[in-house]
Amino acid sequence: MSRESTTPDLVELVRRSFEAANRGDVNATLSDFGPDSVWDDSAIGLGTHEGLVAIRAHYREWIGAYEEFAVEAEEILDLGHGVVFVVALQKGRPVGSTGQVQLRYATVAVWAEGATKRFTTYTDIGEARAAAERLVHERAQADA
């Protein structure tokens, strides 16, 4: 009898989330967040949002500021122990504007029990990579 892995493919889940964001599907974009998840956008001046209700409101407000919105994952790495590192490029045209804006950033997501528990945005990609590596080390020590 063959057994399939019950461990989710975190890279694929993140890819699907980016696809959903580009379709404007908020529910699918946030489908891996739980009721006690935390989304920390303090590095880009947008605060920390605790709980799915607050995360959904924050996300809707963020994308609602754009008439055109797209986000591309340049790099998605499952570093192990439930830590995912992403480098992304977001482009958009703000409501009422003819100009385009873009933001290249990194995120570190911590997964547990099949959900994103904490999602942190960084403008400094090196800082994000170092934070992700520290988290992997800390979680590996905790699992040992």
How would you sum up this structure, described in words?
It is a single chain. The protein is α+β, with helices and mostly antiparallel strands and 144 residues long. The chain has a single domain, classed as Nuclear Transport Factor 2, Chain: A. It is 35% helix and 40% strand. It has four helices and six strands; from the N terminus they run ααββαββββα. The N terminus is likely disordered.
Q: Summary?
A:
With 144 residues, this protein is an alpha+beta fold. Helices cover 35% and strands 40% of the residues. The two termini are 30 Å apart.
Separation, N- and C-terminal Cα atoms = 30 Å
Radius of gyration: 16 Å
- Number of E-state strands: 6
So what's the CATH class? Alpha Beta
Helical/strand content category: alpha+beta
Q: Could you say which overall geometry the principal axes of the C-alpha atoms support?
A: globular
Largest sheet: 6 strands, mixed
| Count of helical regions | 4
Number of domains: 1
List low-confidence stretches: 1-6
Secondary structure topology:
Elements: H1 10-23, H2 26-29, E1 33-40, E2 48-50, H3 52-64, E3 66-80, E4 83-94, E5 101-112, E6 115-122, H4 125-143
Parallel strand pairs: 1-6
Antiparallel strand pairs: 1-2, 3-4, 4-5, 5-6
Descriptive tags:
disordered N terminus; single chain; Nuclear Transport Factor 2, Chain: A; alpha+beta; 6 strands; 144 residues; 40% strand; six-stranded mixed β-sheet
